[in-house]
Design a protein that fits this description.
The structure is a single chain. With 263 residues, the protein is mostly helical. It has a single domain, classed as CDP-alcohol phosphotransferase transmembrane (TM) domain (Four Helix Bundle (Hemerythrin (Met), subunit A), Up-down Bundle). It contains ten helices and two strands. The longest helix is centred in the C-terminal third of the chain and has 30 residues.
Length: 263
């Protein structure tokens, strides 16, 4: 009779340590499954559940990296697997949700084009992120979870909207704008690196008002939250451009212009 060898605590710990890579990949797999589930829900006109699935995918996407770093389980396979999961959950799933939510009944072919452009923007954004140097403070281009979050928040705000030409135009502009921002070089702040204790008082007040709005009307509050982050990148870009244009004019040049205008 063959007796099974009992593992001592040290051997058991070593085996678990060698298998530590499974845990973050399971979290990534959960994110991908939520994206796949959102596609199924969208195809069967269950838009509220599709939005919830995308929201859960965003949550899992924020956890897998933390879990990998916590257990020292980062790997090249994990990074590639995460990018593929992000494309499913934040590229294909939001595109399918918007297509079935607004475009299919009114503008089928146009909706296919707009939805594909969004998915293409997400794929390009993820591919460029894998090739670029890591920057923990800012992102170049709108992150795909943020783009998917705004799409989900829009559908969540009006899940049973009867689409007409006005809303069709708005939805088209939104999807194409998000696709452009994802492939652009506009910088967006990483939420993970924001230090709350260093934020100015007006930002604290705005955050409190936003939390109250989400509590009072979660549909409008989540839409404002997602739209605010998407708008933050272009706003920062515009302010930086204005700052550069002001600093590019020497002080004496401005005074000379004023003097010449008074004569």
């Amino acid at each position: 009779m063959v007796m099974s060898r009992k593992l001592n605590p040290i051997d058991l710990r070593e085996r678990l340590y060698r298998r530590r890579y499974i845990l973050p990949n399971l979290v990534t797999l959960a994110s991908m499954f939520c994206g796949f589930l959102a596609i199924i829900y969208a195809a069967t006109a269950r838009h509220e559940k599709a939005v919830l699935a995308i929201g859960l995918a965003i949550l899992f996407d924020g956890l897998d990296g933390r879990v990998a770093r916590r257990f020292n389980a980062t790997s090249k396979f994990g990074g590639e697997f995460d990018s593929f999961a992000d494309f499913v959950s934040f590229g294909v799933a939001p595109a399918m949700v918007v297509y079935h939510w607004g475009f299919r009944a009114l503008a089928d072919e146009w909706g296919v084009f707009v939805s594909f452009m969004f998915a293409l923007g997400a794929a390009t954004r993820l591919a460029r992120f894998n090739l670029s140097a890591e920057n923990l403070k800012t992102f170049q281009g709108l992150p795909t979870p943020a783009a998917a979050g705004l799409v989900a928040a829009t559908v969540h705000y009006a899940p049973d909207l009867k689409m007409d030409m006005i809303f069709l135009t708005v939805a088209s502009v939104l999807m194409l704008l998000l696709a452009f921002l994802m492939v652009s070089k506009v910088e967006f702040v990483s939420i993970k690196k924001i230090q709350i204790q260093h934020l100015p008082l007006p930002v604290f007040v705005a955050m409190g008002a936003l939390i109250a709005l989400i509590w009072y009307n979660h549909q409008l509050g989540l839409l404002c939250l997602a739209a605010g982050y998407v708008a933050s990148g272009p706003c920062i870009w515009v302010m930086r451009r204005k700052g550069r244009s002001v600093t590019a004019i020497p002080p004496n040049e401005g005074a000379r212009t004023v003097d010449s205008s008074t004569h």
